[in-house]
Amino acid sequence: MxxxxxxxxxxxxxxxxxxxxxxxxxxxxxxxxxxLYPICRSITxxxxxxxxxxxSRDLPLDIHEVPSGTRxxxxxxxxxxxxxxxxxxxxxxxxxxxxxxxxxxxxxxSVPVHARMTLAQLRxxxxxxxxxPDWIPYRTSYYDEAWGFCLSETQxxxxxxxxxxxxxxxxxxxxxxxxxxxxxxGKRADEVLxxxxxxxxxxxxxxxxxxxxxxFLARALQGRERTFSYRFLFIPGTxxxxxxxxxxxxxxxxIRHGLVVAGVGDPGPVTYxxxxxxxxxxxxxxxxxxxxxxxxxxxxxFSPYGYDERQYGSPGFNLPVGVLSRTPHGQYPEYHTSAxxxxxxTPAALADSxxxxxxxxxxxxxxxxxxxxxxxxxxxxxxxxxxxxMGGVPDPGTMQMAILxxxxxxxxSHSLLDIAExxxxxxxxxxEAARLLAGRSLxxxxxxx
Amino acid sequence: MxxxxxxxxxxxxxxxxxxxxxxxxxxxxxxxxxxLYPICRSITxxxxxxxxxxxSRDLPLDIHEVPSGTRxxxxxxxxxxxxxxxxxxxxxxxxxxxxxxxxxxxxxxSVPVHARMTLAQLRxxxxxxxxxPDWIPYRTSYYDEAWGFCLSETQxxxxxxxxxxxxxxxxxxxxxxxxxxxxxxGKRADEVLxxxxxxxxxxxxxxxxxxxxxxFLARALQGRERTFSYRFLFIPGTxxxxxxxxxxxxxxxxIRHGLVVAGVGDPGPVTYxxxxxxxxxxxxxxxxxxxxxxxxxxxxxFSPYGYDERQYGSPGFNLPVGVLSRTPHGQYPEYHTSAxxxxxxTPAALADSxxxxxxxxxxxxxxxxxxxxxxxxxxxxxxxxxxxxMGGVPDPGTMQMAILxxxxxxxxSHSLLDIAExxxxxxxxxxEAARLLAGRSLxxxxxxx
Amino acid sequence: MxxxxxxxxxxxxxxxxxxxxxxxxxxxxxxxxxxLYPICRSITxxxxxxxxxxxSRDLPLDIHEVPSGTRxxxxxxxxxxxxxxxxxxxxxxxxxxxxxxxxxxxxxxSVPVHARMTLAQLRxxxxxxxxxPDWIPYRTSYYDEAWGFCLSETQxxxxxxxxxxxxxxxxxxxxxxxxxxxxxxGKRADEVLxxxxxxxxxxxxxxxxxxxxxxFLARALQGRERTFSYRFLFIPGTxxxxxxxxxxxxxxxxIRHGLVVAGVGDPGPVTYxxxxxxxxxxxxxxxxxxxxxxxxxxxxxFSPYGYDERQYGSPGFNLPVGVLSRTPHGQYPEYHTSAxxxxxxTPAALADSxxxxxxxxxxxxxxxxxxxxxxxxxxxxxxxxxxxxMGGVPDPGTMQMAILxxxxxxxxSHSLLDIAExxxxxxxxxxEAARLLAGRSLxxxxxxx
Lengths: 449, 449, 449
Prior knowledge:
The structure is a homotrimer. By secondary structure, chain A is α/β, with parallel strands linked by helices. Chain A has 13 helices and 19 strands.
């Protein structure tokens, strides 16, 4: 991974370039996805370490190791799982199911097994997708000691009766849960949390896409001045966020905004899922960005099923954390199958997702409340060069409207985000209007919220 | 009337069986309607007494007699009206309009008359429905001393000129207003009020249907443990509720929820009319039940025209009383005509209406606020047998979603009804999830509201 | 202008007669528009004085003169502009553009010029509408010293190369800003503000229509008893309202409701633009009137672009001032062109606009909160002659419904306007029901708000 060349675009510039990949950043992120694709990850183990080491080449990543058995909230850090090989051999010694060809073939967290058995004995340990006969499903058994193989329905139908040698060369033993963390300090200690799960094996959209976009978002933010501090988490799903929350409970009050980034590489509609609060600033920022992004998009309500927002949005924490994805999880047939591969994600979709993230960050960074210093009547904008000289023209233009809206609503109780929402104008335009007005002393700036 | 065999079904079970009559309770209620159909009721008189005596066979009915002349709120209990016979005879002595054939033929509360007159003299006392030439309208003149006959347009057109003998053998004299009351005491003194009008003669849907459904609801509630106390009123419309309110003003503060049951036997859409408050618990319970009942249904806003909700919802009382009906009054052509007969109501519609009532009662009884005892992160459901062992499957299923919603929203400020509304899940599923969680000490129960 | 013969119609009567001009008042207003059409107005100068003098024939108009150079809020009253003649002559001395044919030909506030120049030198001073080749645009340059001519694209294309004599015989020098004001005192000092701009030359809809409707509204209100005081402003746009606000800042607290009247003569949909507050009484009154007016209509949200509501609704004042127009400014092609002429406005549209204004005034005047003196149950309306004697009829009728709604909601916290909104009934019907009930002591009246 090389440093992203994406300039810190204003929201407007970002919106304008959405839909293609002029800076090449989409192709770069796709390269990251492709390099990480072969690694067999799970919620613990060397696949996670290998992934984090790769990311740490370009990011100041702290890698944490939490021992198995550690109590974290209502949970316990499980034993560490590693796997070297797995196969089902037929009576002639041919590997008819082979972990070396796809790490999806083994149910994640399968305990070791080496046995000879009939197809009938093997059958309860085999998982297929009859409706998608050529795809391999992805299955896990993290908290229930079991073993199994996933294979295509076509493979299953090809298995003759005879005896089979079944081997899973795995280990499940005390070790560690591993996760990565990047803190980019800003002017304020208040934090924006970006959380991405890293526990899936060879699945491209879920969630190598999220890993790539989060990493490039971090790199983009490294290169700019920041009001907020930004904390990026690269964690295994559920147990990772539970662990991080348990270890950082005394610092959660610093989190002002948060976003889970997951499944952001497919070409489906940009989807923002609201935080449990429903009207947090991050929710409103996402609404504004999606309204103007020029892409198919949707905003959906919080529900307690999905990714790590379940943990951040549990009632004891209730953090303002939303989710950015493309097609929501479970709503595309490739979800959790071997078809979620490098053909399913596209450089353009990755680039669009990154730009949406950057536009949201721009709002978080730039939102503030100004006070109109000339609140009685409109100030005479013409003599300040802020109003066209020639009158009578029907359409005032977008920037002129933004100037009028900012003046009209800057009564101390409306922030720029409020103004963008009420006016229907892009946040970047509203923000630019405020800068113009502040430059002529028509606004007094307040601190960001 | 025999005791209803309907088990106290959970809301879910009720919803599942909606649309047919497997328990035969619809047929039983239809039998009640058919038996009460011939009686000539009005707002006072022996028809009401006869109806209440019939109901008291199976219900612990208190029958109240309030003397004519009693001041009740702004009203006065009127004289009692009874009728024995009435007819119009033509010059050849044939009964061309005959009360013995239909009690609708006489305007209710007609004063006695016995006279001979021409058709022209008679004409102002005759009421027909020209648009429905074969139907007899239903008309009343409770508070204006008058007399009249209702007949079909066809009958009217058949009347020749000659002289007619007109006879109404009625009495209008000091007596009593009669109503019935059933109180089923519960654990709490707080009451749910179920109110049904009993003042109409041979009209099946309006309101023998309401009488039957209310009576069977009372019987069903007799057989179960009750948190609330349930008060059933079988009263004449308007003057009955006015009288009851006047006599019970010191106890109205006990009424927590209320429902007028009227016109619940036709196969039209289930209609709930909100209380004057608009957002009472009974209003929200009805909304949830109708959303999931599997029948055509609608929720309409309060208006001060209709049944006894006008009195309960007058500004000085403002009780949280809604109305359950099928097609709203006045919106079906059979309304207040002889076509509202035993062919217009169906056992299935009666059964569905009763089940809707029971499902609403289930919510009133079972709604409560729990507190998640493990509010930080999700509790690990898998080790408690509340989460499927095999991970990766896209669809979590309804009960799994209910468990997650209940945990997520049980922060002390959301009741099960709130959770059902926000999650879009049936109340029964939410309630069952709460029972499962409370059984594993993941929820602490609070008292019902 | 003769005194309007329009009776002070109740809202209902007004609504019923909308759509035609039975009283001839539309024709009278059209006559005013036609008489004022030829005058060359601008934001200052003799055209404004001439217009105000015309209005003062029938209205008690105070004409104010504010000296150039006066500081008003953030603005300064500009020099006074007057014009006598202007033309462009070709090399043969023919007037190819002639102010005497249309005062739109000169950019308003053009400084004097008398020069000979080539077409190339002249070109930057010429304004056309290429898409509407036969129309002359309307352009101004109030605050930027410049000069220019507006002409049709056809005229422009006909100009040969040679030399041209250019003459604008105008003066721009210290003088006065002129505006007119009518105060109709009411029982209360609280005011309703009606504001109309008078600064446009030969444009019929914008805003001779507003001038005519405002003047006739004033005349209609002269002839009736008034609770509120009514202040009518006939002012130049922007600088006029800024000036008036600056000079009257100590009295603005008296303004309870306000309306800008502009562009009310075209046959487009009646459009009400909400005040900045969005839920002011005037906003709600307009909503009710438009809902029942029987004309195509729309209610749109406030935005800080348009007419003088920009000044009244600036954050330092935030007055409850909405805007009544037909097709909104800038949304019809004739806007600010020579096609906004006497063919574009119609007597019927003017009459409808006036009636809408009168219906809004009726609500402002008549809205009040009553208290039901018999709030427990319905009062017995029959014995007071307020309920039909014959019962059983399905449809109670509009006035009966209004009586029931007024009784039901008159609990001290709902005004007649609230009741009209919730019931969906016309305000006039609700108001009439309240009068009937108050006449029978069933309501106690409160003062208007």
